[in-house]
Amino acid sequence: MKTRGIKMLIAVLAFTMTSAISVNAENFFFDKKEVNGKVVESMKYVIGDDGNYVKQLKNDFSYDADGRLTRKVTYRWDDKKEKWIPQSSIDREYNNRTGTMDVSYSTWNDRKKEFDVPTERIIYQLDKNGDFVSANFYKEGDKEGIHIFSAKKAEELVAAKELK
Predict the structure, then answer these.
(1) Would you list the DSSP string of the chain?
(2) pTM, whole model, 2 decimals?
């Protein structure tokens, strides 16, 4: 049950990973690096103007001591600077006592050279098996954020995402 609930959350948030190397009809592929069975880096390559594969996106993943994903940082490749430029960060905080998972989304502030305050948050309530119970969505606003959506069933959450 716990695995099914976690898989549903992952699918809904589009935190899915591809196989080690998978080729797609759109002329791109992903390559990933694993450490102790956990993906720590995923890179997307696309076909460039010259017909060769070129770097496009990179994701770095961090995990807690329980093996749960805690952070995903996305970078884009800058050909002119020949380096990875941070784009966004998705951070997860787990509270075993309350049975919640707090997911926040931040964008990179190039002027400050750091991630800005999160602009979006989703707080998931999980049951004792780790299965999805409800979710509350927040957008940037006052200290508490602006509550924009709640779902009490995974089906409601999926339906809301499909409508957007």
Answers:
(1) -HHHHHHHHHHHHT-----SEEE-TTSEEEEEEEETTEEEEEEEEEE-TTSSEEEEEEEEEEE-TTS-EEEEEEEEEETTTTEEEEEEEEEEEEETTTTEEEEEEEEEETTTTEEPSPSEEEEEEE-TTS-EEEEEEEES-STT-EEEEEESSHHHHHHHHHH-
(2) 0.71
